[in-house]
Amino acid sequence: MTNDTAVSDIDPQDLAASPERFFNREVSWLGFNQRVIAEAKNPRHPLLERVKFLAISANNLEEFYMVRVAGLVGQVHERVEVRSPDGLSAKGQLAAVTALAGQLLQEQRAIWGDLKGELADQDIHVVQPDELHEDERIWLSAYFEDEIMPVLTPISVDTSHPFPFIRNLGFGMALRLIRPRSKKPLNGLVLLPDQLPGFVRLPDSGNGLRMIALRDVVDCNIEQLYPSFEIVSRGYFHVIRDSDIEVAEEAEDLVRVFETALKRRQRGEVIHLSVDASMSDDLRNFLLDEFELDPSNCGAMEQLMRLTTLFQLASVDRPDLKFEPFSARFPERIRDLEGDCFAAIKAKDFVVHHPFESFDVVIQFLRQAARDPNVLSIKQTLYRTSNNSPIVRALCDAAEAGKSVTALVELKARFDEAANIRWSRDLERAGVQVVYGFVEFKTHAKVSLITRREADGVVSYAHFGTGNYHPATAKIYTDLSYFTTDEQLTRDANLLFNYMTSYVPPTGMKRLVAAPLTMRDRLLEHIDAEITAAQAGKTSVIWAKMNSLVDPDIIDAFYRASQAGVEIKLSVRGICCLRPGLPGLSDTIEVRSIVGRFLEHSRIYCFSQGLPMKSATAAVYISSADLMPRNLDRRVETMVPIENETVKNQIVDQIMRANFKDNLSAWVLQPSGEYKRLEPKSEEEAFSSHTYFMTNPSLSGRGSALRRV
What we know:
The protein is α/β, with parallel strands linked by helices.
């Protein structure tokens, strides 16, 4: 997927000042989702995992419409004239992404058709109504009457029954009806609540697992809801609304504001309407009129369904069609010390690589702090966490035990706002001092700071993470947890907490780098230093791993570095607005994206400092921040320097080298914007970074295996 213009023939000096040096952010994101969709076709993955990839891509695309497309629609309505860095107006971007997103929707449906056939070959049958056996029809009619019909509410729309409000992501059936007595036509609606299953499992008949989509169950039995009406035509529809939340900077009570905003989210402007391709024109126009939509914002699909319901199908009990399970390893250092996290951290800094090493170590760290009578205080940032979170429980236990506990809760964590409000109140009831941070900034940093009275005085223990304090996502996201008692880092962490809770600027921070204060400048300083080294004839290398690369100033700095001869390798999972491989501008830059069993999420920045890239001499950071304007300018983020030799070896010589060696899960970005999947060459060893780390979860001392990358 590309927004390519003919750039290869443009003079590098002219291109360096042209908007065409950037890829469009929204188009690049759609390219990422296309790579996710491609995994649904990847024969290396087990079949049900491919079904799950398709469901993930559908969920991604819904969120894209709810937030990014909605934002563009708002700019067009407000006649915003500001262009994106790549030179497109809001209207131009909207036209581009609407066309590309429509192609992805069609591709998703085509892949689902193929997957259904492969599932049938494995005795998992998703049947159509005309494939039902007679005994199944009888059973399904009774099931509908007993289990489904009581939940449904048929609505007829006329002057006394106005068109109802349909919430965001609402899915339902529209009908054209004839009244039994007057014979007058009217329109009807039946909404399918989220509480109903997406698929109904039919009784075991000895012919494999047979399931039917809920939409088809309702369609087969719709006469039970309108028994005396003539149904002239009918078809399904799906509504996506604007779901972004804006909060005024002068908001006095963030919790109250967000509770109100969450209610507004469900009532946001309709951004996109999908309908069955077979839906009659009069029904389609009826919906367009009621939603006040232009026909260009309506897409027609054969056998419309919410593909997010495929998560249910992917969970059926067929282990032979899923990834082989693996057990995350608990760090030996802590286990050898009988589970004493403090003793292990005080002995030596260490890093834990999730999900290959267990997130339980983070939970145990906080649980031990809650129980330990020598612990004086706990300070914790919380951006996202799970329902019934053991992290929240540990903080509550600590407060109830009389410890000073402060939780910096971010209410602006998109789509987790309601959960964050709920458990922030649980924390307050337990006696935790809850602070909601800045109105104008999101607090995205992942930091725990524990102070403990010991024989030699008060000692501080810190955890810095690249991912959220979320035990569930920690099983599927690749992230790093770094534990340290370094006096300067823990002191800096305390200054950062003071900044987040009191707005006091953290003067005197010695090592910790924080956005929006110093991170942008520090990154640019390192890039400039590599440029200076390269210009002096020294070997100069930059390696970086992130989720997204969008920031124009950072991209331009990478271009300058490339022009100076710096070798730059970037692992960017999602959005990348940098054009690599252009002669005279970016020909020393390689960009790859790994999409595989786990979601690449850790952020790592390595600068060789005028030498070949070696862990012993490189400047190495782990971070909560991607290279986007929002992370560098509008969020509180951390970038943590790693100086412990063992930890640097793990990060540089294992994780980064494995990312750049991967030739089974990696895609390489072309100058045109197209991504090409890497395939092992005949003389190459097939290598998957995810498989490597699953089979080598403890990496200390294993660096030599990947030295040649």
